[in-house]
Amino acid sequence: MPGRIVKLLLPVSCPCCGSEIRVSDKGDICPGCRMNLEVINSYGCLYCGRPVRGPGLCGRCGQLEVTSNIDAFYIACIYGLNVKKIIINFKYGRRRYLAGELSEILAGCWEELQPRGFDFLLPVPLHKTRQRERGYNQSLELARRLSGVTGLPVSRGVLTRERKTMAQVSLGRRSRSGNVSGAFRASRRASGGRFILIDDVATTGSTLRECAAALKKSGALRVGALAVAHGR
Ligand SMILES: [Zn+2]
Ligand SMILES: [Zn+2]
Fold first, then answer.
1. What is the end-to-end Cα distance of the chain in Å, rounded?
2. Which residues pair with 39 in a beta bridge?
3. Could you tell me the distance, in angstroms and rounded to a whole number, from the CA of residue 148 to the centre of ligand 1?
4. 21 with 131, same domain?
5. Which of 10, 125, 212, 216 has fewest C-beta within 10 Å?
C-alpha cells in the first residue's frame, strides 16, 4: 500500500472512480466508493458459489443433484462495479498494492463467518507462464495478507496448475468448466490436510471445484473456498 509520503509525492487515484486519494483517506479507495462496496459476507453454494443463506447448495444446484468436493464456501462481496474495478486494477493494471484493500474485505468475511476446521490457506495457483507475465499471483498476495488475520499458514507447492487455461472471464458457462477441467494437480503432501482455497472472483465455481477435486484425489480431508466476490 502506498504510504503517506508516497501519496504526498505521487497522487494515487481511486481504482473505482479515478478521483485522487487524499493523504487523510484511509486505504487505497476513496470514502465514497468504499461505502458502495457490495459486501455480503455470505455462504456460497458449494457447487456454483452463488450466495446462499446457510451452508449447502443453492436451489438450482440442489435440483440438479450435483456433487461438489468443496465442503464450505464463503463469499465476501457481490461482484459489483467497484469491486470489479479494484480486482481488474489489481490483476491487470499492475496495482499490486490493492491486495491490501481486497485482503481486508476477505478478513471482514473471515471475522464474520469464522470458518473452522482448516489448517492452511491455499491460494489458487497460476500457471507459471502467466505468473511470469503478471509478475505475481493475485491469490497468493491475498492469502499472505490474510494469514496474519487467520493465524493459518499459507500452503505452498501443494497444488499446481498444469495447463495454461484461458481467462475464465472470456468464456461462456459451459466452456468455463471444460477450460479448467483437469488443469490442477495436487501433490501427495495434500494427504490428510484441511485447506481453504483463496481466490479473487468465483465466477461459476468451476476453478475452485477443480482445485478441490485435485486436492481430494490426493487425499485432502477437507477443502473450503473463500473468494472476494461472486458473479460475472
Ligand atoms: Zn472512488
Ligand atoms: Zn449453486
1. 27
2. 77
3. 27
4. no
5. 10
User: Which ligand approaches the C-alpha of residue 66 most closely?
Assistant: 2
CA of 51 to the centre of ligand 2 (A): 8
Total number of domains in the chain: 2
Is the pLDDT assigned to residue 134 strictly greater than 80?
Answer: yes
Q: Are residues 80 and 170 in the same domain?
A: yes
CA of 44 to the centre of ligand 2 (A): 8
Domain that holds residue 191: 37-230
Same domain, 20 and 51: no
28 C-alpha to ligand 1 centroid (Å): 9
How far is the C-alpha of 185 from the C-alpha of 162, rounded, in Å? 7
> From residue 148, how far is each of 58, 116, 154 by CA, in Å?
32, 16, 10
Tell me how far the alpha carbon of residue 225 lies from the centroid of ligand 1, in angstroms: 29
Same domain, 28 and 118: no
pLDDT tens digit sequence for 174-222: 566 666 778 899 999 999 999 999 999 999 999 999 999 999 999 999 9
